[in-house]
Amino acid sequence: MKQNLLSTGAAVLLAASALSITTGYAQSVPLSDLLEKGIYAEETKGDLDGAIALYQQLIGDAKTNQRLAAQAQFRLGQCFLKKNRTAEATAAFQRLIKDFPDEKELIAKTRPHLPDALVLGPVPWPDGEELELTIKFANGADIGTMVYRARSAQFEGRKVWELGARMFAKAHSFSRVETSSEDFRPIRSRWMHTMLGDATATYSRDEVVLKKVGDKEPKTIAASGPIYDNEQAMHLMRRLPLAVGYKSTLPIFSSLSGVVIPIGIEVKSTETIETKAGKWECFKVDLSLVNQTFWFSTDPRRLVVRFAGGGVTADLTAIHQRKSGEPVRWQDAKLGVSLVAPSDWVIHLQDPDNEPDTTSVYLLDPEALAESCMLRLHAMSKLGEAEKKSSRAWADAQLVKLTTHFAGAKVRPESWKELKVGGRAATSFVADYTDNQKQMTFRAVYALGTGANAEQFTLVAEAAKFDGVQPAFESIVNGYQAK
Q1: Considering the domain boundaries, does residue 3 fall inside one?
Q2: How far, in Å, CA of 424 to CA of 289, rounded?
Q3: Domain boundary among 86, 113, 140
Q4: Which of 90, 363, 426 is nearest to 247 (CA)?
Q5: What would the pLDDT profile of 386-426 be if each residue is shown by its tens digit?
Q6: What is d(CA 223, CA 196) in angstroms, rounded to the nearest whole number?
Q7: CB-CB contact of 171 with 155 (8 Å)
Q8: Predicted structure pTM score
Q9: How far apart are CA 419 and CA 427, in angstroms?
Q10: Shared domain check, 64 and 34
Q11: What are the φ and ψ backbone dihedral angles of 159, each rounded to 5 degrees?
Q12: Are residues 239 and 143 in the same domain?
């Protein structure tokens, strides 16, 4: 998926573009005349849409006349207020403060229209909480998982909440945000998406320093008043005084686009939601501009029970509490298998599987070093007679498929090994290949036994990242147990 799921990033880009749309008036029209026409449309004709178009035109054209541009920016915000488009008005006023810091008189007039600092309630989550959600399309197809984490920590001698998220939905992403335990303001964040980029943001009271992988220099963004990192937004909402009728604006910074956008939030109703993890009465919370909806439980825990947006739904499927550094233990009684993974790994059983007679268990490393890491259980009855003869025969057959799909794939001769996996005879190898000009490394383990399934463990990563994730992968394979 090319959209950053559960993130305001894409919406921020759209909103930022909307604020800079121009109207096609000839640039030969004097800027002062554009301002007068805008004021006439706004105050005399009551044509707010026309006035908005004129003010936006002036802002786009007035590169050399900052005074006129600032006036147009202020009046643009006023027009949005008159149309009850509060979030857009807030964005316009915040842009005035950011782009025209010398216009002190106009800035002073904007202050009453900007949202006050959010009133936050006590932290509702226990130390070490993990909320696991399964992501599905409208047709019920399982496309991945999202895990939210919260644990107490120390950062540069300060007590902080370390908030994190790990997502897999055809693409991988992870985030980590250190926030002050006192006021919940962000201190530092990192967000990485395998398709959209890798960015680190460092916060102070008056600015954000954003550094994106690939950029030569960091970018400094002025911050007028409290702002919050996009990757702490879900936990931030859990601390709000939610109630039916509650409205507010969240000043959210997106490291994807490098801008602050005010996200309008409104609690419209309560609904009863039932998922695999339980049944809850929930506040239904709508977010403007990003067209997303969250359902938070009305009990003191304020669990995120459901999310909907971008054509997908994510439902809460498991609640965990783990200490820092604690291994992840997973088992499935129906399958009769169990796994142990290092701390902060995510284990996701896909349901239903995309292929018949196969069960897929995704193994997600914390920082998405692996392009693919998984356990696949193949029905023994569906293996060919030649493949059933030995684990080496099955490995050879699968290798043929690999070399057919990736021309030039080569096995490292010394990598062939015979071993035991969950008490079963197994064969493993390592191969190298090129995919879209990227040097890739493929590690595979094939195990056969007397049970209903044959096991296939695979690890795929860019060659430069392979060594960083392989030891953890080997530990998972070695700890596998099956009936």
Answers
A1: no
A2: 54
A3: 113
A4: 90
A5: 999 999 999 999 999 888 888 889 999 999 999 999 989 99
A6: 24
A7: no
A8: 0.79
A9: 6
A10: yes
A11: -80, 130
A12: yes
